[in-house]
Amino acid sequence: MEFLVLILIVGFVTAGLSIRFDRFFTILLLLFVFKLTIFNAINLFLWVILFGALMIILDNADKISKLPKAMKMKLFTFIPIMTFIFSWLGSYVFMLSSKTVLIVTLGIIAILYGLRLVFIHFAPDELDLTNASPTIVKLCGIFGPIISGFFIGFIGTSLKPLKIPFAIKFGKMNAKQVYLGNTITTFFAAFFTIIWHFVMSKGAITGAIFYQQMILGAALWTGIHYTFELTNIFFKNSWRKPFQIIIGLTLLLVSIKVFMMI
What is the pTM for the complete model shown? Predict the structure, then answer.
């Protein structure tokens, strides 16, 4: 029952928000529905975003292969190196952090994500921009993998809901390019973080637990994905903005429940 509740809610919500892989809501439902600890919820969620990011990369394999060599070098050399280093740093902080620190951080992120959904919306012409600011492009290119690597290691989310509006609204960057870059960043950061958390757990994550988390993570991602696909067929574009505001307000309310876990 808990499994069905989670995949139906997350699949439906992310279909309305057009979110395909960084499904932050999963962590919250793992806490409130599955009744997992914050540590286990984050470790399980890492598998969900890993599989989601991998799917998008495979779906865009042809497009990626046609990118300029310099861009591919950055995507598959610079990003892996940066996420390798900073996911380790974030994972180290995760292992040192108490339940209270993680819960407070999660609550703050829920508030920020909620505010973003309520107040920041994209006009159709903003999703196909080509006049990017060179300064913002460089900042995002350098600090994007650093920020995502650290925060995925620390709290399991890449901060995509905050990074992408910054890149598009302030940097006038192309939404598809930003999304693809963040997807590849998330894939490598999640992959390395899963390894770091296993290595740093000092035996708390046994081989059996690791395997169980992988299988459950794959099952959750599959259920969420197909709920997303089925729901998305019937979701009208005119519904998306009000739906986004409703979900944003809901996240603000849920953040109160998160803080009550302290």
Answer: 0.95
pLDDT digits (tens, 9 = 90+) for 227-247: 999 999 988 888 999 999 999
In the chain, where does DSSP find H-type helix? 2-17, 25-32, 38-59, 61-65, 69-73, 79-96, 99-119, 134-155, 160-165, 175-200, 207-234, 237-259
Q: Is residue 78 within 8 Å of 46, Cβ to Cβ?
A: no
pLDDT for 130 beyond 90: no
Domain total in the chain: 1
Burial 16-31 (b: 16+ CB within 10 A, else e): bbebbbbbbbbbbbbb
Nearest to 15 by CA among 205, 223, 186: 223
Q: Could you write out the DSSP letters of every residue in 117-185?
A: HHH----GGGGG-----HHHHHHHHHHHHHHHHHHHHHHS---HHHHHHIIIIIT---HHHHHHHHHHH
Average pLDDT over the chain, rounded to an integer: 94
Contact criterion met (CB below 8 Å) for 149 and 83:
yes
Range of the domain at 162: 2-259
